[in-house]
Amino acid sequence: MTKEMTPETIAEINKLFETPNAFTKWKFMQTPYFDKLPDAVRYTVEKECLTHYFNILTDGMSDWKLPISGTIPTSLLNPFRAAVEYFTGTELFVIEQEDTNFKVFARGYYMMGEDAPKGEMFG
Questions:
Q1: Whole domain around residue 66: which residue ranges?
Q2: Dihedrals φ, ψ of 72, to 5°?
Q3: Does residue 97 sit within a domain?
């Protein structure tokens, strides 16, 4: 006999695997095997992975297109940078390091293509 799972239980289980799944996808995207996948599969995996990291960084923002700032683990700088560039077309800058985290900033989607005035990159 099997026990049926409630939607709440399934959501809890999915949360357990959400981060490792994104990290596993990110690692796979860095291998030569990723490039051998059909385009549609590559685009789907890439979007799922980068959406995860972008959502973490923009959680709580009223508008994800505004300038972005936050704190991320140093070990995940590359996927966060890729996610910000993918969704906003802007670069994610490291402001400072605190222990095993980076404080980061990106100009955001609305500022894509605009150069920051000298001396005001993070303002």
A1: 7-111
A2: -130, 155
A3: yes
The tokens describing 120, both together, are 């005001």
The answer to whether the beta carbons of residues 107 and 90 sit under 8 Å apart is yes
63-106: pLDDT as tens digits: 999 999 999 999 999 999 999 999 999 999 999 999 999 999 99
Q: Is residue 2 part of a domain?
A: no
DSSP 46-113: HHHHHHHHHHHHHTT-S-TTS-EEEEEEGGGHHHHHHHHHHHHSSPEEEEEEETTEEEEEE--GGGTT
Number of structural domains the chain divides into? 1
pLDDT band (50, 70, 90) for residue 28? confident
